[in-house]
């Protein structure tokens, strides 16, 4: 145990004083030699700052003493769960840079909250400015108090002496130097912060015995248990992803200080680059605090300083540890204290400069004459900075609080959640208006104040073995969790997202109820939102049921449902997951443009089901494999298995975002809410119930979602048919427009709308989706017998064909509706995949509630496919990549957890890739091109194994590699021309003669300019891939076949057994 004040030597004071002197010198330089007398100079540095100092300043001001001192203490007590925050912070930076910042910069506002006046009203601006000012008044003293605590522990000098002195110094250089002084002192202070943090990490690791000791001790003490999924607890994955991440996003997106620095660079591109780098930088420093927390736990795992009253507050833990360790390293306390003050002064100076801008722009400027604004702006701003005196006095209040992090986050959550909600309403919800925004903000403030301050009435609560000091254990009344009101038991990390959600939901509803007729058209009414919400709630409830009440802790249960599922739910799940939004939305558009030739698929798909049931499925089942591609290892080699698994995983990564993007397009058209806000929310909900519920949750949610999909499709058919004048009208118009020309037998491999393109292209494409799909096989394996699996496959083919027939009918109804005024030509819609949504919203004037049913149905189809994709990818990654590296004991005890983690990580990557999907024009060709490259190879490999007994490992690999090279050239070549604006397929005639409005036409490029092989219809890509694999694979196998080589009969199709010896 150390004596308070005994740790600081003259060199420690020297390090501390140098930090203060350099900071003051920088401020003095910009105050006296580089005077800033105008607002543009004082607040934005004349928009001439460089990327590097601005980025460093953003990082340093975010990593206050609160982060450096209290986050390690948080890790010490609650574990390393904040590691998820470190991983998510770069995502926060990217979202701010590319979603919010462009809007704010283009709005040409100098004050972040000035955007609210332009978008909503001056009342919203004043409200947000007041909230920000109040938060800053509370935040400022916390920022100064934290390093003052450390200084007191090291020197014995009271906090109430240190804090005012440090505040005065910061006030001085910020007041005279403006934003340039702030940014350049931040750059210097960043060096001190990083140096001290790294030194503590390195010296700490050495002092406790090395990295291995830290790892083992932390693991034994459950400090590395970061895979917890209890949504109500503080230290879980969900509290970080939904709580801490959104809280930090709030600090970036709604923070005037951050926005002000972004405006100090000259262009939007530079500002975006600064913000992206900032996210990665802050993430790295938060990671260091996690490491330091584990080092502290390793040091005191047998003698907790909190329980023994060596320290009395969590925020004193890190200074206690540094001072305890510094006996062997002279000078460490001085570097540590200087580093903490660097972080704190950086944050505090930014707060002062930002609040000066807000008070001047939002309160004073409107009362000043133009002359005073022009001549006295600099002096006025410098005077406002002195508001910091008030903040300094409030340090007294901070001492009365028990834990700084929960207090700060609770207080900030009340305001920040509200401001973030308003920002989302403004930027991402076009239907939002001023009344709705104000209503949402007030409701959020009231409810969050109740929850936040209610939490502050309750308190929290170490091992005491092997302590070599005497101590008194102070008992305190520990509240039974069940005695605390349920809302106060929610982790404090959720404060900001709850406040944000309340603001957005209430604001949106209030805006819809109070909008004027002159405002932009919105098709969703309250009953539409109810239909959509019911779909999401039921899906979530099913997943939650199987996750918490029917737990699945091993692979057999999680991936295969214990092989106890019934035929009906599995069949329905197979159908629903196949009919994604791609089918429901994009296929009717395909019929609209290219005709009803896809009707042949309704015949081909049931045949595919029979082939799968009696040719391929018996082989897979007898091979007793969990992963479909495990069969390739038994039949050929492990290299074939790995290749197939890598290809399928890549396909799922690319396919997942498209599946979610489709319904988000429809939701955007119906509500005006941006795809970028809808998609992540839907993805996270699906990831949640799939992660915790496994295959049973997937299958039973599919069963419910099947009802939604069918109801939506049938309703659209009925309402659409009535709206255009009946079935006879549809038939006559479609026939006249060549949409029913399904007996097109011309021998043209370039044409998309021929019988041959469906027979040799589309039918095989769908066959590959069934025969080579791990998701389909996994569900068939969830029933107990081969006979039942066969029945599922046959019924699946018939069911998909029935729903495909509905998409063909919908396409013809759409053509009947727009046969005289094509929405694509007139740019009423910009993309083919928006056609069905446009049609539904158009006819919904005659059928209220139809948009809600339609969007819910599309989301049902998409969620079903996406959840199946997640569960399937987990099985592939675990079985084919991870399992071989895991100990038998780990496989037995941790299988369920590992699979859930895989679902989680895979879903996050897939969600992020939704941004990429927005650059593509047509979804069906894109999906079939990507699928063609991979499915052609996969089905070719499986067909070699099942149908070609002479095939061997060398032949299979050669065939697969050749296919990948050739078909990739073909597929990506087609995509190149597509992105160049070339018409890849010739559409049937589209008319605009009946349009009663003006529009601009687009000149179509000549299709003959496309290189000949890239004009081949995309339907043939899979067929070409399969053909190449089979031919090359068979030839190479015959050339490399060894004499006497015999294949196991169980690994080839039963239909070939009679021909084998």
TrEMBL record:
GO CC annotation terms, alphabetical: plasma membrane
CDD domains in UniProt: SLC5sbd_NIS-SMVT
PANTHER family: SODIUM-COUPLED MONOCARBOXYLATE TRANSPORTER, SODIUM-DEPENDENT MULTIVITAMIN TRANSPORTER-LIKE PROTEIN
Protein name: Sodium-coupled monocarboxylate transporter 1
TM spans (from-to): 13-32, 52-71, 83-105, 126-147, 159-183, 195-216, 236-254, 275-297, 335-359, 379-398, 404-429, 436-458, 492-514, 526-546, 566-587, 599-621, 641-663, 675-700, 706-727, 791-809, 853-877, 897-920, 932-950, 957-979, 1018-1039
PROSITE patterns: NA_SOLUT_SYMP_3
InterPro entries assigned: Na/Glc_symporter_sf (IPR038377), Na/solute_symporter (IPR001734), Sodium:Solute_Symporter_SSF (IPR051163)
Record Pfam families: SSF
Record membrane topology: Multi-pass membrane protein
Origin superkingdom: Eukaryota
Biological process, per Gene Ontology: sodium ion transport
Entry similarity comment: Belongs to the sodium:solute symporter (SSF) (TC 2.A.21) family.
GO molecular function, one term: symporter activity
């Amino acid at each position: 145990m150390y004596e308070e004040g005994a740790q600081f030597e003259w060199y420690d004071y020297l390090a501390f004083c140098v930090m203060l002197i350099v900071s003051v010198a920088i401020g003095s330089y910009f105050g006296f030699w580089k005077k800033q007398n105008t607002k543009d100079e004082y607040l934005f540095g004349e928009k001439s700052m460089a990327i590097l100092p601005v980025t460093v300043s953003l990082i340093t001001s975010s990593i206050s003493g609160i982060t450096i001192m209290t986050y390690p203490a948080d890790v010490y007590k609650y574990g390393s769960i904040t590691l998820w925050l470190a991983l998510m912070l770069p995502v926060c930076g990217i979202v701010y840079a590319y979603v919010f910042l462009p809007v704010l910069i283009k709005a040409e506002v100098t004050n972040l909250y000035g955007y609210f006046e332009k978008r909503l009203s001056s009342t919203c601006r004043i409200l947000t400015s007041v909230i920000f000012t109040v938060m800053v008044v509370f935040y400022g003293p916390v920022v100064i108090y934290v390093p003052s605590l450390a200084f007191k522990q090291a020197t014995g000098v009271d906090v109430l002496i240190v804090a005012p002195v440090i505040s005065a110094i910061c006030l001085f250089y910020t007041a005279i130097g403006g934003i340039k002084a702030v940014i350049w002192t931040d750059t210097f202070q960043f060096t001190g912060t990083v140096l001290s943090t790294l030194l503590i990490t390195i010296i700490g690791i050495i002092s406790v015995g090395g990295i291995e000791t830290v790892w083992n001790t932390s693991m034994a003490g459950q400090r590395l248990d970061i895979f917890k999924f209890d949504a109500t607890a503080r230290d879980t994955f969900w509290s970080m992803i939904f709580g801490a991440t959104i809280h930090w996003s709030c600090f970036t997106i709604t923070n005037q200080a951050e926005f002000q620095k972004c405006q100090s660079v000259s262009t939007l591109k530079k500002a975006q680059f600064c913000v992206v780098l900032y996210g990665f930088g802050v993430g790295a420093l938060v990671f260091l605090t996690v490491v330091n927390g584990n080092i502290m736990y390793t040091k005191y795992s047998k003698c907790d300083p909190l329980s023994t009253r060596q320290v009395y507050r969590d925020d004193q833990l890190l200074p206690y540890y540094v001072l305890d360790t510094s006996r062997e390293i002279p000078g460490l306390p001085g570097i540590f204290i200087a580093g903490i003050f660097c972080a704190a002064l950086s944050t505090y100076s930014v707060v002062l400069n930002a609040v000066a801008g807000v008070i001047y722009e939002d309160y004073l400027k409107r009362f000043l004459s133009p002359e005073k604004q022009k001549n006295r702006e600099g002096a006025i701003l410098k005077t406002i900075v002195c508001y910091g005196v008030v903040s300094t006095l409030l340090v007294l209040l901070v001492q009365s609080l028990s834990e700084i992090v929960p207090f700060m986050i609770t207080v900030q959550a009340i305001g920040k959640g509200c401001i973030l909600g308003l920002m989302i309403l403004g930027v991402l919800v076009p239907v939002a208006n001023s009344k709705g925004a104000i209503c949402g903000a007030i409701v959020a403030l009231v409810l969050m104040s109740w929850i936040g301050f209610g939490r502050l009435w309750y308190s929290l609560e170490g091992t005491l073995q092997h302590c070599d000091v005497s101590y008194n254990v102070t008992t305190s009344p520990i509240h039974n969790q069940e005695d605390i009101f349920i809302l106060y038991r929610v982790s404090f990390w959720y404060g900001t997202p709850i406040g944000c959600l309340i603001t957005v939901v209430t604001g949106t509803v209030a805006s819809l109820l109070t909008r004027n007729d002159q405002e932009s058209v919105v098709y969703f009414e309250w009953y539409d939102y109810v239909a959509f919400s019911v779909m999401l709630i039921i899906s979530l409830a099913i997943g939650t049921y199987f996750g918490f009440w029917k737990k699945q802790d091993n692979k057999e249960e999680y991936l295969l449902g214990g092989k106890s599922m019934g035929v009906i739910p599995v069949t329905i799940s197979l159908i629903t997951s196949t009919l994604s939004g791609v089918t429901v939305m994009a296929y009717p558009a395909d019929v609209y443009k290219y005709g009803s030739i896809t009707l042949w698929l309704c015949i081909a798909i049931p045949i595919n089901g029979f082939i799968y049931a009696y040719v391929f499925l018996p082989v897979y089942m007898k091979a007793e494999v969990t992963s479909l591609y495990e069969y390739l290892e038994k039949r050929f080699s492990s290299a074939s298995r790995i290749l197939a698994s890598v290809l399928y995983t890549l396909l799922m990564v690319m396919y997942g975002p498209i599946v979610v993007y489709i319904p988000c397009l429809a939701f955007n058209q119906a509500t005006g809410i941006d795809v970028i806000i809808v998609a992540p929310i839907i993805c996270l909900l699906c990831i949640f119930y799939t992660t915790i519920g496994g295959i049973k949750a997937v299958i039973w949610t599919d069963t419910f979602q099947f009802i939604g999909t069918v109801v939506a499709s049938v309703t659209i058919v009925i309402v659409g048919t009535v709206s255009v004048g009946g079935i006879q009208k549809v038939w006559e118009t479609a026939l006249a427009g060549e949409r029913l020309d399904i007996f097109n037998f011309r021998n043209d491999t370039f044409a998309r709308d021929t019988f041959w393109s469906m027979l040799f292209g589309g039918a095989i494409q769908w066959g590959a989706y069934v025969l080579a799909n791990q998701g389909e096989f996994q569900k068939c394996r969830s029933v107990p017998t081969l006979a039942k699996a066969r029945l599922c496959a046959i019924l699946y083919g018939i069911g998909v064909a029935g729903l495909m027939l509905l998409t063909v009918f919908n396409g013809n109804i759409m053509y009947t509706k727009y046969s005289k005024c094509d929405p694509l030509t007139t740019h009423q819609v910009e993309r083919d995949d928006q056609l069905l949504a446009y049609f539904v919203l158009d006819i919904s004037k005659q059928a209220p509630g139809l948009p809600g049913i339609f969007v819910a149905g599309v989301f049902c189809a998409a969620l079903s496919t996406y959840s199946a994709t997640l569960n399937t990818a987990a099985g592939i990654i675990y079985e084919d990549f991870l399992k071989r590296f895991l100990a038998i004991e780990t496989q037995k005890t941790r299988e369920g957890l590992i699979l859930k983690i895989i679902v989680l990580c895979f879903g996050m990557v897939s969600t992020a890739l939704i941004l990429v999907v927005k650059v593509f024009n047509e979804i069906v060709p894109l999906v079939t091109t990507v699928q063609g490259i991979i499915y052609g190879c996969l089905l070719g490999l499986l067909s070699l194994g099942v149908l070609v007994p002479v095939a061997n490992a060398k032949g299979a690999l050669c065939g697969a590699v050749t296919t990948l090279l050739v078909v990739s050239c073909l597929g990506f070549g087609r995509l190149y021309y597509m992105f160049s604006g070339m018409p890849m397929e010739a559409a049937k005639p589209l008319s605009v003669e009946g349009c009663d409005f003006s529009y601009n036409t687009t000149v179509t490029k000549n299709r003959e300019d496309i290189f000949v092989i890239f004009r081949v219809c995309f339907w043939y890509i899979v067929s070409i891939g399969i053909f190449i694999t089979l031919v090359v694979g068979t030839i190479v196998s015959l050339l490399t076949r060894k004499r006497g080589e015999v294949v196991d009969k169980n690994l080839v199709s039963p239909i070939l057994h009679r021909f084998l010896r």
